Amino acid sequence: xxxxxxxxxxxxxxxxxxxxxxxxxxxxxxxxxxxxxxxxxxxxxxxxxxxxxxxxxxxxxxxxxxxxxxxxxxxxxxxxxxxxxxxxxxxxxxxxxxxxxxxxxxxxxxxxxxxxxxxxxxxxxxxxxxxxxxxxxxxxxxxxxxxxxxxxxxxxxxxxxxxxxxxxxxxxxxxxxxxxxxxxxxxxxxxxxxxxxxxxxxxxxxxxxxxxxxxxxxxxxxxxxxxxxxxxxxxxxxxxxxxxxxxxxxxxxxxxxxxxxxxxxxxxxxxxxxxxxxxxxxxxxxxxxxxxxxxxxxxxxxxxxxxxxxxxxxxxxxxxxxxxxxxxxxxxxxxxxxxxxxxxxxxxxxxxxxxxxxxxxxxxxxxxxxxxxxxxxxxxxxxxxxxxxxxxxxxxxxxxxxxxxxxxxxxxxxxxxxxxxxxxxxxxxxxxxxxxxxxxxxxxxxxxxx
Length: 450
Hints:
By secondary structure, the protein is α+β, with helices and mostly antiparallel strands.
């Protein structure tokens, strides 16, 4: 953890303290003396941001100073006198490769590492670099133009004559004729979303070389309107409108959504994205997407349904729902389906449970999944960098019925990220075999009775 200024006893120009933390780490006045005598009590704007960040970064005021606790969110955020940078467990190069695979991005090995030193970028700049690269590829004559209708007075008529207009004018009284024709135009909604995405990314880039590169790409959209603000339904509409002709936009749209979502609660109080004091990205979202794609791509007999609710796990008794409450439907990250039948429920967590504690509420959740699974087994897949990590098994038992039929089982299984990265990099038949073997180990259908 580093600081820009050693004096933390009073307000100074700029940031008093810059903290660099890892995921799931805690900084307090004991292990980080720079947090002493810092208070946000008199800063109402910072207090509001602290409330909106709850669940992502916890910032508490103590008698001697501040305490900061991180979770699975990585990136950076400015809160009053603090600039908090949260680093992912993976370094930039392997993280880029896994992001590229999880979100179907183009091969970033084409990026010139001498122009932008990838290893020195934070996660937000890494995401922006990915977007810039995708947009550069699109700009090489691949931006899609859409036919747009125009009504013009033309001396060389084309399209169709607008007869109502000719009649309104009392016939043909001049050389030009009113015509309705179509022109291919860059200025249409999907390109407007791209323009907003690259302009916003350029304004947020911390690396100077990356910022200049992003603005150069943004200049290529000078003929495209720039929306004042981007909303979730704008992204939804753009993705739903993807066709065979516009499929090349998918990686860029995915990255724009990632950057937009990573602004999280910090964009709630402003209409100006430039005023947002940071970017925080939930690595749980990335890890779930990564595991989903890996299992789907490399399964030979089963398929994976994402976030499929478990119907019937809870039900009100007849006459027992006077408030007409909706029935709870647990929603595991993955449902394993084989030959049309549900076989198992799996969850994915980015927290390294080989090194960190296992939260009790995760065990309760897994217990519900196990009790509703045909083989009465649920699996938690967690991310770790430890090559020696091994799986853990627990039983869910009833204190009043100790029969085997009343028991369920929970499996806590590591996903060793260096191993995953290694098999993703293998080519040919050997690579295909290695990926399928790893996918089968992560699911281990022999445990599930299939």
